[in-house]
Amino acid sequence: MERDELAAWLRLTLTPGVGNDTARRLLAAFGLPQAIFQQGGAALRQVVTSAQADALAREPEGLPALLQATGDWLAAAEGGLARRIATLGDSAYPASLLAIEDPPLMLYLLGQVQLIDSESNRPQASTNIALTAINHEANGWPARALALVGSRSPTPQGRQNAQQFAQALGATGLSIVSGLALGVDGAAHEGALQAVDEAAPPRRLATIAVIGTGIDRVYPRQHRELAHRIARHGLIVSEYPLGTPPLPANFPKRNRLIAGLAQGTLVVEAAPQSGSLITARLAAEQGKEVFAIPGSIHNPQSRGCHQLIRQGAKLVETAQDVLEELRWPAKVAPESIAESAYPTPAEPPDGPQTALLEALGADPVGLDALMARTGLDTATLQARLLELELDGHVGRLPGGLFQRLGRA
């Protein structure tokens, strides 16, 4: 992208009072952004309000600095990762986002951009952006992608489910889309990466992380190393200019892109007011399938999923359920998909520990209830629970509760 063209796109996105919808009207009326800023006030007022026309006539504060920073970011080379800005009308812009209610004007891409973009697929430059007339079918955005979202504070079982479903579905060739947040999002990205050989050159986008900050920032910081691995075997995507901090309002807004880049959305665990339910609602509004994993009636993190199921979301128990509903053929045997979704621990404990696992059941339970079920004293019970926790058979929940992991 030439510097003048980049400057015009950035100016359009920064102009106060001009949102994506207004910008699209301007693009439809005048063509590329450079042409918009060549118009006089009278011409602009035929499309936008007087206040918006006045704003378009003034250069936004901070534009020169942002233009310099963006140019430097595009020119930088780091670890063989490609950097790209895809604008409306660009061949690298995902066709699926053109169908959502509020497609962003610009997408910042970091990672395996070569898997979605090719010079031979790029249409000739046009002076008029007619979104429906541009052929985006040739680019390489995944035709089989699933959004996998959920709580930032999942139970141990919820985190395990997210990772194992992502790994099982990734093994069939699906790309996993999520938001790089703590909890379920991070586990989903991890599972998707486990389904590919991280030492080998990527052949497809294993996972796509849609973030709510500028692409030059990693939030949360704990996911810095994970973000680097995602970029090496997938893509990091942002609609926000470089330097944008983690503003609370940006995260619910980016959820429309998570839903838009996927053909379906799977919610693992979610509280009733969770942002994951926003993603599920947006997916449903886009005419896409919504899936939810049920949980214990005693687990607050399951209530959002149960709410979705009551509203018509598909109840999911195995990865095969998702593939069958979307009519996607699996590249591995169905039984192996089901097993990978709910694995039994490799070496189940025996003796007293087996009896304790049976007493735990499938629902979260407290010490008092376990003491009543097992007849064990507090010290013995805590020691055995700690041993099971260290072996990965039991997870500790807030409120002094314990939950059995894996297949019940």
Outline of the structure:
The chain has helices at residues 3-14, 20-30, 33-36, 41-45, 50-56, 63-75, 95-98, 156-170, 184-194, 224-233, 250-260, 275-285, 303-310, 319-326, 334-341, 352-360, 367-374, 378-390, and strands at residues 82-87, 106-111, 145-149, 175-178, 207-210, 235-238, 264-267, 289-292, 314-315, 365-366, 394-397, 401-404. With 408 residues, the protein is of the alpha/beta class.
Please write the string of helix (H) and strand (E) elements.
HHHHHHEHEEHEHEHEHEHEHEHHHEHHEE
The first-level CATH class of the largest domain is given as: Alpha Beta
The total beta strand count reads 12
Structural class: alpha/beta
Strand content: 5-15%
Distance between the termini: 55 Å
Count the DSSP helices.
Answer: 18
Rg result: 24 Å
Task: Describe this entry's structure for a reader.
It is built from 18 helices and twelve strands. With 408 residues, the protein is of the alpha/beta class. It has three domains: 1-75, DNA polymerase, domain 1, CATH 1.10.150; 145-341, Rossmann fold, CATH 3.40.50.450; 352-404, Winged helix-like DNA-binding domain superfamily/Winged helix DNA-binding domain (Arc Repressor Mutant, subunit A), CATH 1.10.10.10. β4, α9 and β5 form a beta-alpha-beta unit. α8 (156-170) runs antiparallel to α15. It is elongated. The termini are far apart. 43% of the residues are buried.
